[in-house]
Automatic annotation (TrEMBL):
Record-annotated Amidohydrolase domain positions: 52-519
Name under which the protein is recorded: Amidohydrolase
Gene Ontology molecular-function annotations: hydrolase activity
Enzyme nomenclature, EC number: 3.5.-.-
A Pfam cross-reference name: Amidohydro_3
Top-level taxonomic group: Bacteria
Keywords, comma-separated and alphabetical: Hydrolase
């Protein structure tokens, strides 16, 4: 019996990203897979009575994009938490807090979406405890900022922290103390948030994501969406089994949490990428663990949240239970710790361990990672708005050398490094990211480490073929070749040839996952 072609895209520039860099005029999809590419006249003949035919009118088709490190679940929180998108002043931020608080019962929690008020607001700071108290009418407020947070008086009291003399500013451990008492969403709320988040990524042409740190309850929710056929995004999860990036539980309890092994894949819509752990802080906060001391703090080398011994216990237990590991490491001293542990605990048969961020990685460490078969998930967007803050901690030379993408690609090969955003810490926009990767320009237009730029072709592969290799799916994802999963995006500009300004503003017109159209602007015939 002849299979019926479900979808045909005709008359465009189909960048297949196969090994030869083939550009076709059309692509056909059958049963969720690419069934043919080639000249428009040939592919048109494959259409049947039920085939949907999309006329591209010269638009560009690329494989669906893969964000290799993204806390994607935060993209579906509008209406549930305070969004600070576009806010530039403290008063405007407080107004948004007040507006959401007014929709909550007295005593109900008010949560914020992660943001960076020190860089975002003209005042250079976020609200303090007393300002949160007034804005939220005394309700408990928790506003995360990545590795820091701010809390109101009621939130501190509910977590057991004495608010006396406390401005509400929380860093690392204290932040987790408050986060643990924030109530969980209901099952229905979380399903709605996650499906909205998936659609938000689809609008960007993203068809797959490596979830940066999913808690067990979110893993269950994502699994349920995949089983029910409601997932529009392929999720590979980095999991925090105890809900913490740097678990403080006894080793026996850690081993118990890992004993059942990774959850089984659900078709092609869910797989487990590994366990997520954290070694150090960040560049912008001035807490990344570095070999050389900080510029403005003699003798200070940042923060290590796990020493070699403890990290070896955690990673070794994970490997024995069948889990690969991804560690948050920003500074070169933290990378040394992670590589030491990866080498000491290596285990055959698992996906490669990952250095997540690795923003200050050195060439000797890149060579060592290659020898160990370790991958790197790198994010150039950390330099987009943060150059001045980073330089204030580390100096110009080390800032210019941060996120050395050119060195990473040359040292590890394209399949050893993958691109991403660390959203919501950075913007989700993949084309702004590709622009930054290839020009090394920041939001102000200044070049930051120009020698570390990659080519357009490399940047696109870091978002497609490399992303597929990052999760061990390079045989079925990242290319538009016969038999590959029909994940693709139709763009208003060609990311390989558009002028820089057009690249940065690239519009996604349609996104397809497994042959199903999951986003459509209606602009295509």
């Amino acid at each position: 019996m002849t299979s019926v072609t479900d979808l045909i895209l005709l008359g465009g520039r189909v960048r297949t990203l196969d090994t030869h860099g083939t550009v076709a005029e059309a692509v056909a999809v059958t049963g969720g897979r690419v069934s043919a590419t080639g000249p428009a006249t040939e592919i048109a003949r494959l259409a049947g009575p039920s085939t949907r035919v999309v006329h591209l009118a010269g638009r560009t088709v690329i494989p669906g994009l893969v964000d290799s490190h993204c806390h994607f679940e935060n993209a579906g929180m509008d209406g549930h938490t305070v969004s600070f998108a576009g806010v530039r002043t403290l008063d405007a931020a407080l107004d948004r807090i007040s507006a959401l608080a007014a929709t909550r019962e007295p005593g109900a929690w008010v949560q914020g979406q992660p943001w960076n008020p020190a860089l975002q607001l003209v005042e250079g700071r976020g609200p303090d405890r007393s300002e949160l108290d007034r804005a939220a009418g005394g309700r408990p407020v928790y506003l995360p900022e990545g590795h820091a947070a701010t809390a109101s008086t009621a939130a501190l009291e509910r977590s057991g922290i004495d608010p006396g003399g406390h401005d509400g500013r929380l860093v690392e451990g204290a932040m987790h103390t408050v986060a643990r008492v924030v109530p969980d969403w209901t099952r229905e709320e979380r399903a709605a948030q996650l499906t909205a988040a998936m659609r938000a990524l689809n609008r960007r042409g993203i068809t797959s994501v490596v979830a940066g740190a999913l808690r067990p309850e979110d893993v269950s929710a994502v699994l349920e969406l995949a089983v029910d056929g409601r997932s529009t995004l392929r999720v590979a999860a980095m999991i925090t089994p105890t809900g913490e990036l740097n678990p403080s539980v006894p080793l026996a309890d850690w081993e118990t949490a890992l004993a059942s092994g990774p959850p089984a894949p659900v078709g092609r819509h869910y797989l487990t990428r590994g366990i997520k752990l954290q070694v150090d802080g960040g560049m912008t906060l001035g807490t990344a663990a570095t070999r050389e001391p900080y510029l403005t703090r003699p003798g200070y080398h940042g923060e290590l949240f796990a020493d070699r011994g403890r990290l070896a216990e955690l990673v070794g237990a994970a490997h024995r239970a069948g889990w690969p590991v991804g560690t948050h490491v920003v500074g070169d001293a933290a990378i040394d710790v992670a590589l030491d542990v990866y080498e000491a605990t290596r285990h055959r048969g698992l996906l490669p361990d990952v250095l997540i961020h690795a923003s200050l990685i050195q060439r000797d460490q890149i060579a060592r990672a290659r020898a160990l078969g370790v991958q790197v998930a790198a994010q150039t967007p950390f330099l987009w708005r943060n150059r001045a803050a980073i330089a204030g901690h580390l100096g110009d030379a080390r800032t210019e050398a941060a996120v050395p993408l050119r060195d990473l690609v040359d040292g590890l090969g394209l399949d050893g490094v993958a691109a991403g955003t660390d959203y919501p810490i950075n913007a989700l926009d993949p084309f702004q990211n590709i622009y930054a990767m290839t020009t090394r320009r920041d939001a102000a237009g200044d070049v930051v480490g120009g020698a570390q730029a990659v080519t357009r072709a490399e940047a696109l592969r870091l978002y497609t073929t490399s992303g597929a290799a990052h999760t061990g799916e390079q045989e079925v994802k990242g290319r538009l070749t016969v038999g590959a999963l029909a994940d693709l995006a139709v763009l208003g500009a060609d990311p390989l040839t558009a002028p820089d300004d057009e690249l940065r503003a690239t519009e996604v017109l349609m996104t397809v996952v497994g042959g199903q159209i999951v986003y459509d602007t209606g602009l295509l015939g």
